[in-house]
Automatic annotation (TrEMBL):
Signal peptide as annotated in the record: 1-18
Record keywords: Signal
UniProt-recorded name of the protein: Outer membrane protein beta-barrel domain-containing protein
Organism: Adhaeribacter terrigena
């Protein structure tokens, strides 16, 4: 009986200790990455060049990480991504063209990792794990390819499997701050073992010499392999527990310090981070013989900005930064086809701003108008046809989404906005804002078209163009560099 009581007491003690340490060892994080399809296989007869194209997509997700020991950890991630398959079909006797598909997928990943200290807060990390991947249900029956000239070229897509398991491995760097938050930079590879998608090509042509008629078949296969370069940020769950405790049991407020000391801490150099949702606008036209339909569809893409600046004593601010995000061109065909389509292209922007802080509520909150200029670079895109799964139960068929870059890789524009900044510490501020941006040039950077048939009759093409006009809602954090006497 004594042994039983001893074991129960030990178990309760261990359970209480584990519950106390659990929030300290568990952290929650966000991640975003750039993926590239790998391991593509070309099979079949090759009288031509069927060449896979290296494609790039964006992934985003959340993860939980549990610290097993000081050097070992376990991680569970959930993310959404896309697997774009593009290839250039170039017969020896005709100009080549690019065709592609882009099925979305959801992924659940479990992995175990090891890290080793390099210097102070910087550590090398490595991990191994498995990923369950679930693709959207998607199929493309045989249909004639566009831009095939006099030759009869057809394409089709066979979704061999909807779900699969991939093995993954990653290496990277982790920087841990003094407040136990961590920034992550990782390079991961995901490996599949059975075919998931098969992109088929078939070509028939008539020639002037024997055998007079030719027939070729080839296909592009993938097992779901891809390479990912991702950024992440995580913070301990204990911080949320401490926040709840602070709200439930607030500490008595200390005596207020003089205004001149408080104000002096918010002058000088500062740095900050901004996350935002950029709503990019497109100009859409569909011309019928007797009328024209015009719309202005939009699509939201995320962005992350690092900035530095200087605030003068008169509250004027000069600021510059570097923003990583994605531009977008979209088509709204919901009323016509029951679908909408958007293309997002990786974009790097360098904004420069002038701001002025108007004090509210005794300098605790500031209303900040801003204006400035920006320069951006957009990753060049090839002319591509993407095929959508048609609505076989309705009158619409042969739905083809076409994207074409128009050579505007570099763009210069202006922006203006308004934000609210509130002080949350001795040297820190949080803010929420709105910003509108537009391009100086009227030339669009990309063109997006959707062609379709209605009851077998081709309809006027829906044409949409975009020139980087967008409105953004932002959340920002900025921190002033500490002065020696403050």
């Amino acid at each position: 009986m004594k042994r039983i009581l001893f074991l129960v007491a030990a178990a309760l003690s261990f359970s209480a200790n584990a519950q106390t340490q659990f929030p300290e060892k568990l952290s929650i994080g966000l991640q975003a990455g750039r993926t590239t399809a790998r391991g593509l296989q070309v099979e079949g007869q090759q009288p031509n060049t069927l060449e896979p194209i290296r494609t790039h997509d964006l992934s985003k997700g959340v993860f939980l990480q549990y610290e097993l020991t000081e050097n070992f950890y376990a991680r569970s991630s959930f993310k959404k991504a896309a697997l774009s398959l593009e290839h250039n079909y170039q017969p020896s006797f005709y100009e080549g063209y690019t065709y592609g598909i882009g099925p979305d997928n959801k992924q659940l990943e479990l992995s175990a990792g090891y890290r080793k200290k390099i210097y102070k807060g910087l550590r090398f990390t490595s991990s191994l794990g498995a990923t369950f991947i679930d693709f959207e249900r998607w199929n493309l029956p045989v249909q004639k390819a566009s831009k095939a000239g006099p030759y009869d070229v057809t394409v089709s897509v066979d979704q061999v499997k909807e779900r699969s398991v991939l093995l993954n491995g990653a290496i990277g760097l982790e920087y841990k701050t003094r407040r136990d938050n961590a920034f992550l930079l990782e390079l991961a590879y995901y490996k599949g073992f059975s075919t998931l998608w098969q992109f088929d090509f078939q070509m028939d042509a008539e020639i002037d010499e024997a055998p007079y008629q030719i027939h070729y078949e080839s296909s592009l296969k993938t097992k779901g392999d891809y390479l990912e370069l991702r950024l992440g940020y995580r913070m301990p769950l204990q911080k949320f527990v401490n926040l709840y405790s602070a709200i439930k049991n607030p500490k008595p407020k200390p005596d207020p310090e003089p205004d001149y000391m408080q104000q002096s801490r918010f002058n000088g150099k500062y740095w900050g981070l901004e996350i935002g949702g950029q709503n990019f606008y497109s100009n859409q036209v569909q011309e019928f013989p007797d009328h024209t339909l015009r719309m202005k569809p939009s699509h939201v893409t995320p962005s992350l900005t690092y900035f530095q600046g200087y605030q003068f004593k008169n509250r004027l601010m000069l600021e510059g930064g570097l923003r990583l995000g994605a531009s977008s061109v979209s088509v709204d065909a919901i009323e016509t086809l029951g679908l909408g389509s958007s293309w997002s292209l990786l974009m790097l922007t360098a904004p420069v701003s002038v701001k002025y802080a108007l004090p509210l509520l005794k300098d605790k909150i500031h209303l900040v108008p801003e204006t400035g200029f920006w320069m951006s670079y957009i990753h060049k895109v090839a002319e591509t046809d993407y095929y959508g799964s048609p609505n076989t139960s309705g009158p619409y068929s042969n739905i083809i989404s076409h994207l074409k870059g128009l050579g505007q890789d570099y763009n210069i524009g202006y922006h203006g906005g308004l934000s609210l900044l509130g002080r949350v510490g001795k040297h820190s501020e949080l803010g929420i804002g709105y910003r509108f941006s537009d391009n100086f040039s009227n030339k669009p950077f990309a063109l997006h078209e959707i062609a379709y048939d209605y009851n077998g009759v081709p309809q006027p093409t829906i044409v949409s163009t975009a020139r980087l006009q967008n409105a953004a809602v932002t959340i920002s954090y900025r921190k002033f560099f500490r002065k020696n006497n403050l």
